[in-house]
Write a structure and sequence with these properties.
The chain is an alpha+beta fold. Helix content is 37%, strand content 33%. It contains four helices and nine strands, in the order E-H-H-E-E-E-E-H-E-E-E-E-H. The two termini are 20 Å apart.
């Protein structure tokens, strides 16, 4: 492993908000209940119940794949010798590199995910782009070309400290 790819700091975040999981698990539970009632016990719901094939498709999509997809979502932030690396799995197939020389400034800040970026995930707002999963703290980067990037973090001070250390040894 080359020194440029040595990971100095790594943070992995998942969507762990209780209310978000409630929004996922309510329809998941309803689909499982309906599937068990219709496919195992043979009970019909209403005058026009879904076909067994339809119920099976709903079970796979909403009863299995949706919760697995939500569980698979993760934001990985790495400080390496040659830059800051961000990957929002499964949307990014590889890390997005933000080299230190492209950064004009960076700072820890508190932000409003809903007001400033319209929520969580890979977001675009009036203050630029954001990668965030939970919480309201992160590191704001001002990049050359007038772009701004916010990276949500549960440990923004530690992230900045490792960035500063890497920048000293990189330059």
């Amino acid at each position: 492993m080359s020194s440029e790819s040595t990971v100095l700091f790594r943070e992995m975040q998942r969507f762990d908000q209780w209310w978000l999981w409630l929004l996922v698990l309510i329809p998941t539970s309803m689909v499982w209940y309906g599937a068990i009632q219709q496919l195992i016990f043979g009970k019909d719901f209403g005058e026009n119940p879904a076909s067994d094939t339809g119920v099976s498709v709903l079970l796979v999509l909403f009863g299995i794949l949706l919760p697995l997809f939500m569980y698979s979502l993760k934001l990985i932030t790495e400080v390496r010798q040659d830059g800051l690396y961000v990957r929002f799995y499964p949307f990014h197939f590889s890390y997005r590199r933000y080299p230190y020389e492209s950064m004009i400034s960076y700072k820890v800040r508190v932000y409003s995910p809903l007001k400033e970026y319209g929520g969580w995930g890979i977001r675009y707002g009036h203050k630029g782009m954001a990668y965030n999963v939970s919480g309201d703290r992160g590191v704001q980067l001002e990049l050359k070309g007038g772009k701004n990037l916010l990276i949500g973090s549960q440990y923004p001070e530690e992230l900045v400290r490792h960035m500063q250390s890497a920048m000293k040894t990189y330059r």
